[in-house]
């Protein structure tokens, strides 16, 4: 109904633009293969009774359902000159799927709202869609719905749904005497951003971790089964996210910095830039690892103990080697 | 992690900007009252076990779940000089809640991703959030999760979840011999847009229908209980949306134009602009009424019969008084 001055003038050498495909064509491109991976292999998710194509998707859950939403905006969360469309799609899925994992749930389905300028090459949109489906299928989930609209910037808003087999693992469940353990990378995505910001493309491992977080799929259910007290995914930085657990649980979380060995790639970035490896490890966000608290002796395989939960307190917080960390604990949009 | 040059310079006389509130403060503003209406009355939705504040919301459904997502973008779906923030929030909720209704489901919960320039007045964001909650509560639902990010334009991406008491009412279920019936307004939102586009603010009823669609909450469940064959909400225009039913069901949908009386407000817009009332009624979108097919004699109260479902055919489509409608059937983004 609005002024529909679709701008076809910017058509370059990248094949048709999304303006030429139309809204419904693009929605089909994004959601039409909901039941397959990008490579065409079928993904069967029995909870999905009806995929895209009607007013809503229809799902049938046997346990409680978790749901979360996170949007990626061009220039804020990704740059098209740094990341491929596939990588952007994967990241948009991953940041949401990590939240599902962090509740101790199994990812089931994604819904995607895709907004873009009319002159965006169709291939960018479909590659992004392939990335979304690829990442979803790595987590055992499928894309069940979508919306497409015009906007000045590319924006991908994803909602993830997951299913619990038991009670959710909340931020508020950390118990004094438990240990804190991590599964996944720390500081890699932040190191990758430092590298990219300075115009470099290596070390490749950290650059790739920045472009597509390596979420430890399955670790959320694993932690829940091991009776994890509290859990969160590391999106803003270890100290910032442990701070959420500390405040919700009214405890002090003690991190032992010696339990965080410095990987070679972070050491390389540190040597080249002067940023301390500890700062990357403790405050770097966007890795979407999982950090959880466990009773001692119940830490699952592949989780690495990095600290302990102290007594209940009215002054909750995070300590590194017994002291308050000096400096920013993480990153917020809209603020320095 | 990204270049976080929050722009505080544009601070005007509208109170603090969202940049000064910070991401977490704004998320709390948007989602923190998830269990109340904008006026503070509690909304108890027993399916919501855990609202905002953790990595995910937690819900418990007894029947199948429907889910849908739709985004509103400034300049495409609303203008801040035409609509108040509250109206934009209400519309963002309504367009999604209408999709839940159109499956025959009961709305339960909304998740909201809110993107805005850093200098947006905080009051605009919180008023928008109040609008989202007000509209949700009219449908019996609550806001259970949110995300806030920076962007050049205001964009509100909403996911709605609903619950079915029986099988979903799909687009594909129209049966030859059924009647077509509508509940809600037709053409009002389009007439409102025509009026606003020409710089007028009246007739007020159509302007208000454009700014906040009047979704007939509860009518979806009512139609499902009456055994509706197919159902859809009128977002793109009656003919366009009936076309979806016709193609999915492989039938011809016959609309009787005499069964669509012209309301006074549409007649007024028609007289002032020369746009025929039939065009507004048949092709105007954004009213988010419900149109469904029923066995004759099973049309629920308050639904108005406007046509019939013809025989199965390999050439499905919509006919008005027996003929193909000449002209556009509806509206698509990205295209004229």
From TrEMBL, chains A, B:
InterPro entries: PurM-like_C_dom, PurM-like_C_sf, PurM-like_N, PurM-like_N_sf, ThiL-like. Substrate binds at residues 77, 286, 331. Pathway: Cofactor biosynthesis; thiamine diphosphate biosynthesis; thiamine diphosphate from thiamine phosphate: step 1/1. Gene3D superfamilies: PurM-like C-terminal domain, PurM-like, N-terminal domain. It catalyses: thiamine phosphate + ATP = thiamine diphosphate + ADP. Residues 175-313 form the PurM-like C-terminal domain. Mg(2+) 4 binds at residues 55, 68, 99. Residues 53-163 form the PurM-like N-terminal domain. Mg(2+) 3 binds at residues 55, 99, 233. It is an enzyme of class 2 (transferase). Mg(2+) 1 binds at residues 69-70, 147. This is Thiamine-monophosphate kinase. The gene is thiL.
